[in-house]
Each structure stands twice: as C-alpha cells, then as structure tokens.
Amino acid sequence: MKMNNIKDDYQIVIIGCGRLGASIANTLSNKNRNVTIVDINKDSFGKLSPSFSGLLMEGDATDIKVLKKAEINKADVLIAVTDNDNINILIAQMMKSIFNIKEVIARLYDPEKECVYKESHIQTVFPALLSAGEVGRILDKEEDDEK
Amino acid sequence: MKMNNIKDDYQIVIIGCGRLGASIANTLSNKNRNVTIVDINKDSFGKLSPSFSGLLMEGDATDIKVLKKAEINKADVLIAVTDNDNINILIAQMMKSIFNIKEVIARLYDPEKECVYKESHIQTVFPALLSAGEVGRILDKEEDDEK
C-alpha cells in the first residue's frame, strides 16, 4: 500500500475502523496525512497503531451530525469501509452528491453490486473479487513454475 | 481471475462455498477442471452457477471422513476458504502434511497471521491486505490523474 501521491493538505475521512479502515488509517498517518477515522464502537480504535496521529471520532456515521463533526464537508477523500455494504453505499453516495468530495471509495463485500457502481463516480473495492484474482494468480504461477 | 494454466487432470478440492469459494469453483468449472466443493450448509451451493459441473459435498470439513469422501487424498490443489481463519489453517496444514498436496491455499481474514505463514508451504490470501493495496492504488492513481 504505497499511497505516496496523496497530497499533504488533503483531508481524509475514513468511516469504519475495522481491519481495513485501521490499516489504511495507519498507512496514511505514517505519511503525515490528515486523517479522521469514525467508528460506532470506540474499542475498534485499538486496531490503530500507537503512533497514529489522526483524529478519532466515536459515533454512528449514518447520523449526519456525526459526519459534520468529522468535518466531512471539508473532506477531499472519503473512504467508507464499515462491515455493512448498505451503510458504505449510503454514506458514499450521499456524501459524494451533497459535498462533491473529490474521491469517494467504498468497500463492498457483495460482488454482485459491481455493475451498479461501474458508472457512478464512486470507486469500489471488492475483497472477494480481489481474493479470487489472487487465488487465480497463485494457481497460474504454480503451473508456470512446473513448466 | 485467469486460471488458464491449471492442468486438465488436476483434482481440485475447495472447502467453503461462500462468495470466494463459489467464485473460484465457477471459474474452474467453466474451464472444465475437476472440482469438488465442500460446505457444511447445502444452501451455500446456491451461489454456484447453474452450469457448475463439479461435485458438491455437504459436510463438516473438519471431519476427516468428509474430507476422505471428497477424495482429498487424490487432490492436487486444496483451497480452504471457509469464513473461519482457524478452520482454514487447520485443514490446510493437516492436509498438506498428511497427503503432501501440491498446492494448498488458505484465505485468512486476520492479516496479523501473515508472518506465521510466510515460511510455510501454504499459500495465503489476505482480503484485508489486498483491499488496502487496492485503496492505495486508487488514491495514487487519482493524484496522478490530476498532475
């Protein structure tokens, strides 16, 4: 995960401090980027590294008051990675259209939703498709090695 | 997911017919490969495509009798992708050591387990790491586009 190009002054809001959210937040914080991370359960922040220097916000991100407190209106990047596809979609679509955030990324578990987002301005990350691709690469590589 | 190189006569056993297991099984079946897929819940097989031509086996894959029925002893490839990391590890390690299966792949949700498997002969797939990498690529690409 390089993330070398993201601008110094970009405001990044991450919704969901699970494994993925925490991992992205730690990487961006290591690069001295401005990160706010929101989670409904404050125990989730335990996944952040001790050196994480961003802002933590405990609250339900489907509540617009919580998002405003996270200064979503000033965000350049919104990353919706709760463990609920519908919440990620809802937040991504609403915030993109209301605040015209430059870059909105949502993680979705259900690959059948891919077609819906192909033509939207939301970037989607599908772990199941990425994992299937990786299994394919491992199997193809194994066979190449035997040749 | 290419999987073009996997040999025609390879016996492939997939444990877990969730999104990932079903996706791999469908791809391999489309390429006329020999696939057996095992799941504890027969409703899971509903995720397979109607054209899936492999064998379905309902049963608990932590029960060696079920694995034997799936002819794990003849398998060239074992792919452990249940939704439980510990079960995937257990099956992968035991079957690799007992039957010396050529290629054993396990999906693991917890990226902290990565270091444990780096030096084993089990290939691991970490959806959280793949997803974090993908988010990084999206963010880096966005910045490149603006330059």
Characterise this structure.
Two copies of one chain form a homodimer. By secondary structure, chain A is of the alpha/beta class. Chain A has a single domain (7-146), classed as Rossmann fold (3-Layer(aba) Sandwich), CATH 3.40.50. Helices cover 39% and strands 19% of the residues of chain A. Chain A has a six-stranded parallel beta sheet, with helices on both faces. In chain A, strand 1 (11-15), helix 1 (19-30) and strand 2 form a beta-alpha-beta unit. Chain A is globular and about 50 Å long. Chain A starts with 10 loop residues before the first strand and ends with a helix. The model of chain A has no long low-confidence stretch (mean pLDDT 89). Chains A, B: GO terms for molecular function: potassium ion transmembrane transporter activity. Chains A, B: Pfam families: TrkA_N. Chains A, B: One of its GO terms (cellular component) is plasma membrane. Chains A, B: This is TrkA family potassium uptake protein.
How much helicity do the residues of chain A have?
Answer: 25-40%
Oligomer description: homodimer
Strand segment tally of chain A = 6
- What's the alpha carbon Rg of chain A, rounded to whole Å? 16 Å
Output the helix-strand order of chain A. Answer: EHEEHEHEHEH
* The first-level CATH class name of chain A: Alpha Beta
Please identify the structural class of chain A as seen in this structure.
alpha/beta
CATH topology of chain A: Rossmann fold
- Overall spatial form of chain A: globular
Order of strands, widest sheet of chain A: 3-2-1-4-5-6
* CATH superfamily (homologous) name of chain A: NAD(P)-binding Rossmann-like Domain
In the CATH classification, which architecture of chain A applies? 3-Layer(aba) Sandwich
**Chain pair forming the biggest interface:** A-B, 41 and 41 residues
